[in-house]
From TrEMBL:
Protein source organism: Halopiger aswanensis
Record membrane topology: Multi-pass membrane protein
Predominant location category: membrane
UniProt keyword annotations, A-Z: Membrane, Transmembrane, Transmembrane helix, Transport
Family: Belongs to the major facilitator superfamily.
Major facilitator superfamily (MFS) profile domain location: 3-384
Protein name (Swiss-Prot/TrEMBL): Putative MFS family arabinose efflux permease
One Pfam match: MFS_1
Length: 391
């Protein structure tokens, strides 16, 4: 296997493990509540703790991608994730758990602030397809996350979950430690002037807003969907509902892998995101049984299009700055993931978790409006090559 394939495999394995780790957080909330005796508002801090460090690290490493020793940073990120997961498993109190989660998110962010930039240069001729495949691999890991929690909890306590997750990152550490990284010389260092120019581009501004909105919806569902279902289903069924939501990502993102280079990005997003609005409304209307499972599946299929499509859309506008653009769009996504679940936790204290989750409907409507507005603002459904907001 050549170096390009080895590194592609190593990156995909890390993304798979990162998805498993992220999707284990929601299904384990009830266990954390019992172990540490904390309220719903305090449980809402799990999402910010897991993503605050991620956002800072992914933005910092992405913006400096042209200046950093990329292979070393990827190795350090993977090793640090394993150490942080071990600390989470051993945490004696909730505050220590949150601190280890903050470190784990920061380490993952340091890796993922660079990984798509590496893939962008290793697969420059098929960037959109590789980004969609990257998102598909994440979806596979995400689907398995809740089921891993259910499986481990049948034979051990919640601490063993994080030990099991740590094992997924070991192959990436081996790749980073033993395989030279192919040259990524096309990645340019970013000056202040160039950063200012990027931030004035309509496509970049719109992509970041869209990513923040989809991150908000996804963050709420990742964190609270299983908890919400646990109010009327047993734990295994509640976790299965989250897996059904995430299962929709797999066929949907596989389909996007084949159409993303053939259909204008904004057209694809409009068609994909429109059904999510009524689907989320049905999901949190009090429905149960097959209707609830079908509604969350439809929502997952539509929302899963946004991350890979907007990522590729932004990078296609300025591929020489793939690292910074990856950092900006990923940072925006995880900013939404960090903040929205905490808001739902506060709302749930006053209005109940069912009513609080209606926030997802409003956010999905705002996402659809953002995509439509981007087409009007830029004048094209595809990524424009030059689109300064001031022009």
């Amino acid at each position: 296997m050549n170096r390009v394939r080895m590194w592609t495999l190593g990156i995909f394995l890390f993304v798979f493990g990162d998805a498993v780790a992220m999707q284990a957080r929601g299904p384990i909330l009830a266990e954390l509540s019992d172990a540490f005796d904390v309220s719903e508002a305090a449980l809402g801090l799990v999402a910010p703790a897991g993503t605050a460090g991620f956002v800072l690290a992914v933005v910092a490493t992405g913006l400096l991608a042209g200046r950093l020793p990329i292979r070393r940073m990827l190795a350090i990120g993977a090793i640090s994730v394993v150490c942080a997961l071990a600390a989470m498993a051993a945490a004696p109190i909730y505050l220590v758990f949150l601190g280890a989660l903050l470190v784990q998110g920061g380490a993952a962010g340091a890796f993922r602030g660079l990984d798509r930039a590496v893939l962008s240069h290793l697969h420059a001729a098929r960037r959109g397809r590789v980004y969609a495949a990257y998102a598909f691999v994440w979806a596979v890991g995400a689907v398995l996350g809740p089921q891993l929690v259910s499986a481990v909890l049948t034979v051990a306590d919640w601490r063993a979950v994080f030990v099991a997750i740590a094992c997924f990152f070991l192959p990436t550490i081996l790749v980073a430690g033993r395989t030279e990284l192919p040259a990524v010389d096309a990645e340019r260092s970013l000056s202040r002037a160039a950063l200012g120019e990027l931030l004035r581009r309509r496509s970049v501004v719109a992509a970041c807003v869209g990513m923040a909105l989809v991150g908000a919806v996804e963050g709420i569902l990742f964190t609270w969907l299983a908890y919400y279902a646990g109010t009327f289903y047993p734990t295994t069924t509640a976790n299965l509902l989250l897996s059904v939501y995430l299962l929709a990502y797999m066929p949907a993102r596989l389909g996007y892998t084949f159409v993303i280079d053939r259909v204008p990005a904004l057209v694809l997003l409009l068609v994909a995101t429109l059904p999510t609005i009524p689907a989320l409304a049905v999901a949190f209307s009090g429905a149960t049984g097959p209707v609830l499972f079908l509604a969350v599946f439809v929502a997952g299929a539509g929302l899963s299009s946004v991350f890979p499509t907007l990522s590729a859309y932004a990078v296609e506008a300025a591929p020489e700055y793939s690292g910074p653009l990856t950092a900006l769009t990923t940072g925006a996504t995880y900013a939404g993931i960090a903040t929205a679940p905490a808001i739902v936790g506060v709302l749930a204290e006053f209005a109940g978790i069912g009513r609080a989750l209606w926030l997802t409907v409003a956010l999905a409507a705002a996402l659809f409006a953002t995509v439509a507005g981007t087409w009007l603002w830029t004048g094209t459904p595809s990524a424009p090559s030059s689109d300064a907001a001031s022009s």
